[in-house]
Design goal:
two-stranded antiparallel ribbon, 4 strands, single chain, 71% helix, mainly alpha
């Protein structure tokens, strides 16, 4: 009789072994980026303590929520990038450049974010004092460099051959869509909001230049923890969704395509492309919704119709690909 307890213990041991092997290998190849990923787990724990003991409010949220969110994001991105870079053979200098530069960038970002929280002020868009403005410009410059490093990683992935083409495309397209998600953040910094512009025209000095929200001030009513506006548009939403394509698309391959016997290689590649295009469409749709000052939780008819059309097109494409694969398999069996 099959012992489920023994099987579960075996799976846990295997997963633990693979995780330890990943960390050892990552530390041997890219120690700085590995340490940054681990350090941000510790920053997250400290920030959670800060949320409990420090009751200050900054831009409508508990002061330590932003460091907690960024610690989660940086840790996930660091470990995912380490995993992704492990599939690139050769180009050692470029791979090391991407890993080390990204590590330094993330350290600078987190130091400024935590430092500004300690000072009791915001890090992003802060124009209150010359120091605040300079710190935000440093952050913007370093994030632009992270975007460039992402482009380098995407190019290396495009040049790298993998035995499983569907998996290779899940990595490549995941990285490309992640770059699109990064690029959405630039929309937050393109210039002053209408309210900020009015202050400038009146000869005043706005405390912020740029914003996450569209149509409403930052710091208003928002969703728990993430803080996404419930009264206006919020560009953090497509930014967030786009950034996580790098995890979602390989996960799709792993869950549905890794051991599929029904689908040929070409069909699996077609499915990865279909889901990727649909995912990119969602990022575009969320950006369009945010730029129209529309809350995520209150979509209008145009947004809903666009979403239904997008999902329907993706589902139809998936059905066509699967049916084509089934027909090909049936024809092959009958010909034997």
């Amino acid at each position: 009789m099959f012992d489920t307890t023994t099987s579960s213990q075996s799976l846990v041991k295997t997963a633990r072994f693979r995780l330890l092997h990943f960390f050892k290998e990552s530390f041997a190849l890219h120690p700085l980026l590995t340490l940054v990923g681990i350090a941000n787990v510790l920053v997250l724990l400290a920030a959670l303590v800060g949320i409990i003991v420090d009751h200050r409010i900054i831009t409508g949220m508990p002061a330590w929520v932003k460091p907690a969110k960024f610690a989660i994001s940086i840790s996930i991105y660091s470990f995912t990038l380490l995993w992704l870079l492990s599939f690139i053979k050769g180009h050692r200098r470029l791979v090391s450049l991407v890993a080390n530069a990204t590590a330094v960038i993330m350290v600078v970002e987190m130091v400024i974010i935590v430092g500004q929280v300690i000072r009791g002020t915001t890090s992003h868009f802060n124009n209150s004092t010359p120091l605040d403005r300079m710190l935000f410009l440093i952050m913007a410059g370093f994030i632009s460099l992270a975007f460039v490093m992402g482009i380098v990683a995407a190019i290396l992935l495009l040049l790298q051959r993998q035995p499983d083409r569907a998996f290779a495309w899940s990595l490549r397209l995941g990285m490309v869509i992640t770059l699109v998600g990064m690029a959405v953040a630039f929309l937050m910094t393109t210039g002053p909001t209408p309210a900020q512009l009015k202050v400038l025209r009146d000869g005043g000095h706005p405390s912020a230049i740029g914003a996450h929200s569209v149509g409403v001030p930052d710091g208003g009513p928002g969703l728990p923890f993430v803080g996404w506006s419930t009264e206006g548009g919020d560009l953090r939403i497509p930014h967030f969704v786009g950034l996580h394509a790098l995890q979602v698309l390989p996960l799709f391959w792993w869950l549905f395509l890794r051991r599929s016997r029904l689908l040929r290689d070409g069909h699996r590649v077609a499915l990865v492309w279909t889901i990727s295009v649909g995912y990119l469409g969602v990022v575009g749709l969320l950006t369009w919704q945010a730029l129209r000052a529309q809350p995520l939780i209150a979509p209008d008819a145009y947004t809903l119709n666009a979403f239904v059309i997008l999902i329907s097109a993706v589902v139809l494409a998936v059905v066509v690909i699967v049916l084509h694969a089934h027909t090909k398999r049936k024809t092959l069996i009958e010909s034997l």
